[in-house]
Amino acid sequence: MKTFKPKKLILLTLGLFSPLVFTASKVNAGSFGAEIFCTMRDGGNDHESSWDAAYTYIKKQKGGFFKVSPKQAAAQITESVIRDRENFSYCVEYLDKLHPNRKLIRDLEKEEQRKEQEAQERENKRKKLEKELEETNENFSEETIDRYSY
Q1: CA 33, CA 52: separation in Å to the nearest integer?
Q2: DSSP states of 63-76 as a string?
Q3: For residue 35, what are the contacts with CB-CB under 8 A and spacing of at least 6?
Q4: Which of 30, 51, 72, 105 is most open to solvent, judged by the fewest CB atoms within 10 Å of its CB?
């Protein structure tokens, strides 16, 4: 029983301190990622190249089993810029590109669903017409009608 106590104590200690270590590296990665993004944008680079550089840095610094998604990285950059407004005051205008227009995305998704639904309805109508045509053809006899037979 006494051998379990030191093991439990070590696991408890690791459990308490490991989130602190990972959180600090995440904050620093997001902060420096924001610095990379804002400096490149302010230097005249386009959004894509600035975003790729910052996102690559944040992914590399995060490490671990789980990767940082683009949404998480964008949120980290935005959070860093907002928290440190004095240093990143020139960068606020570039944040809109990190978070695309959600309404536009929803509208495009609705349009795509509408088109799929219309295509499904057309397919159903075509199948119904084919079925009706087959039923109509079954009603006619196979005999040929001679128009000159009185």
Answers
A1: 10
A2: -SSSPPPHHHHHHH
A3: 80, 88
A4: 105
Rounded Cα gap, residues 100 and 102, in angstroms: 6
| pTM summary value | 0.50
Structure tokens given for 111: 């349009």
- pLDDT, tens digit, 9 for 90 and up, residues 45-87: 888 888 898 888 988 887 777 888 888 888 898 898 888 888 8
Residue whose tokens read 């040929």: 144
| Residue 36 · residue 49 · CB < 8 Å | no
- Asked whether 63 and 9 are in contact (CB, 8 A), the reply is no
Residue 64 Rama label (left phi>0; alpha psi -120 to 50; beta): left
| CA–CA separation, 136 and 142 (whole Å) | 13
